[in-house]
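Reply to thread "Modeling small-molecule complexes from scratch"

Following up on the discussion above, here's a worked example others can learn from. I took a protein sequence and the SMILES for NAP and predicted the complex. Inputs first:
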Amino acid sequence: MINKKLKIGFFGFGCVGQGLYDILTKTAFDAEIIKICVKNKTKERSIPAHHFTFDKNDILQNQEINLVVEMIDDAVEAYHIVKYALQNGKNVVTANKKMLAEHLEELVDIQKKYGTSLLYEASACGSIPIIRNLEEYYDNELLKSVAGIFNGSSNYILSKIFQEKSTYQKALKEAQDLGFAESNPILDVGGFDAKFKLCIITAHAYGLFVNPDEVFNFGIERLNEHDIRLTTEKNAKIKMIAFVGKKSEKEVVSFVMPHFIFKKHELYYVENEYNGVIAEAAFADKQVFVGKGAGGHPTGAAVLSDISAIRYDYQYEYKKISKNKNLHYTRDVMIETYIRYQNLDDLEGLHLQNISVKHESKDFKYLIAEVSLENLYHSRSQLVEKDIFLVSLGIKK
Ligand SMILES: NC(=O)c1ccc[n+]([C@@H]2O[C@H](COP(=O)([O-])OP(=O)(O)OC[C@H]3O[C@@H](n4cnc5c(N)ncnc54)[C@H](OP(=O)(O)O)[C@@H]3O)[C@@H](O)[C@H]2O)c1
């Protein structure tokens, strides 16, 4: 039942904030935007100046405002805003995955303690309604894994490279110009953004809070022309894939890495800023969700869906947290991996097993071997430093 008139305070009027504003005005949604808090006093705005404030307290301490919609690109400040709002009786909708991944457990406790609601569908995979599905639909299912393309901007870059033979730099610039990329592009191309989303999804898939620092992520920024040529010759593409799944009844594993994706794979044709999520469950089998993962309107639409849910007093119940108390996180799996390197000595810390392919020419050296996720995790900075590129071929069963 709709029980209240929403009086909203916006934080942020960038790509997502403007996208949402546009949707709210075009759809004549029954809510009033009382104030919009932004940072830069000299920036030109597309709507009159009286809508804006530069003081967060104009929203946080305004008793009339009952919903804060947080859409800023500063995770630290977002955390303070969201925490304060929840502790002071305001419901919150946020799109900030970094902030959520780093503070979700605490924010869940705060919601319970203060009886307020925090919704964040837009924080994971843009317009794809994955969080509410994991929360509601897969509640009683035996969920084997949730995996997919979680970052629209790196998928856009990879699409341009593999479909249009674009260069990495040109494709990145285009992604930034179109508003798909985070202000700091390493968050996208380094797999950090996908990892933050993965941690949020892990909480709703399995009721497990995993610190993002514990999760291995490896990006596409060192992809070179040899990797591209080899992948194309094999009729494959490279996609950045985030994976979380059950290793056993009691163990959950997750990571983000480039993957070889072949034509028969469900994600082969998921291109540009689109995201694709595959949920695999014991009885439902595979279900594939595809939708725009970035951009003002698609992300704004996900925020709107949460705003709408707040009108119905919707709250995530986090039922799986109490149900799955015995679950724990592990990196104890072997991944079959393509490894492009300069010197074999640089791979020593990986303790490679079962090397199946080895190629060494003057300017292109690679091998395919099994490597444990634990070793990848501990070697991450060394891999980045030594200009090594990795592509997964999947977890060894
Ligand atoms: N872009 C996407 O496709 C997308 C998709 C999913 C989720 N998200 C998430 O949505 C959030 C916003 O992303 P965006 O792309 O809209 O960012 P953006 O275009 O860079 O806009 C950021 C906005 O935040 C404001 N801001 C920054 N620090 C602030 C502070 N301390 N107080 C008040 N306002 C502040 C900026 O103010 P000024 O206007 O004054 O500079 C700007 O309006 C991020 O958490 C991002 O991860 C984005």
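What I'd highlight from this example: The pocket of NAP is lined by residues 11-17, 37-40, 43, 71-74, 77, 95-97, 122, 126, 179-180, 182-183, 294-295, 299 (CB under 6 Å). The longest helix spans residues 97-114. Questions welcome below.
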